[in-house]
UniProtKB/TrEMBL annotation:
GO terms for cellular component: apoplast. Keywords: Apoplast, Cell wall, Cell wall biogenesis/degradation, Disulfide bond, Glycoprotein, Glycosidase, Hydrolase, Secreted, Transferase. The active site is at E152, E156. SUPFAM superfamilies: Concanavalin A-like lectins/glucanases (SSF49899). This is Xyloglucan endotransglucosylase/hydrolase. It comes from Stephania cephalantha. The keyword Hydrolase applies. One of its GO terms (molecular function) is xyloglucan:xyloglucosyl transferase activity. Residues 44-266 form the GH16 domain. Belongs to the glycosyl hydrolase 16 family. Contains at least one intrachain disulfide bond essential for its enzymatic activity.
Amino acid sequence: MDSSPFPPLYKHIKHKHTQNNIFQNPKTQTHTHTHSFKPTNMSTSTTTTTTPSTTLLIQCCYVLFVLVAVVVGAADFTSEMNLTWGGDRAKITQNGGLLQLSLDRASGSGFQSKQQYLFGKIDMQIKLVPGDSAGTVTAYYLSSENWGSHDEIDFEFLGNVSGQPYILHTNVYTRGKGSREQQFYLWFDPRLAFHTYSLLWNPQQILFSVDGTPIRVFRNAEGLGVPYPKSQPMRLYSSLWCADDWATRGGLVKTDWTHAPFTASYRAYRADACVYTNGRSSCSSSKATWWNQALDSNALKKLKWVQQNYMIYNYCNDAKRFPGGFPPECALKI
Ligand SMILES: *[C@@H]1O[C@H](CO)[C@@H](O)[C@H](O)[C@H]1NC(C)=O
């Protein structure tokens, strides 16, 4: 493949792990600035006003309406996303309703959200590169900007030759430390149709879901000394690039450029979230529904079903990799 599908401004990070680690995981990110963020100051002003006064009620409704319009009704990619990499390989069509990234021999492409979020529920429908997508990686993730001590929540879709399954690779970084990979096959072919990939991030847990089925939970384990992402706002990023040195069957299968350009499609973006601007966070009115959301027994059942039938790698089961003992959060039950 071409030496670098990464834009020159982006950092190309190769995570260095132990010899056992199969995840040399290059990432592209715009971590060119270093910010320090003030401690969070969650604003809940929109949910507290109740007086009999009609004026106040109207004002309140207006504020709610604006917040809901800004935060929740967010299917328009033109207003929500910046196309950051790959020139016209990244494009928005259908009046802001469809975003597509493509990859050819010369370059991949990417986008990022204009807003930063501090907690939220983020949904996106994605249709992955169809047919022979071997060697391609579609990354879809939240990340803060404070590189070196950053937080990050990752979905990465590793392509495959036609008829062979994608791998959904996940990871969580807190204060710059990752190495928390879990990998899955999906119970459907993600090339054939749009499916919803969701991240629910609240103070207790990070929940990864696919079409509403939870596949992974990362619990707040501060009690065990594990940092939890709770003060650095994160932006949503996605990029499509060639990683045929590691992505498909560990790098054995290379990208077949006669099938280029490779294209991934996105629609129905919804950020039901707390938007962070100027050191302040303001939350959607529907915050209440996800802020305290935990796994109920039905969700737990589904999560176990996925983990038993579709999980192909879990760092918490990889004893060879952690000879000195598993990371502390592995002690928590799913
Ligand atoms: C690709 O297909 C092979 C053969 O079925 C499988 O072993 C591998 O896990 C699949 N996915 C990737 C991303 O390599």
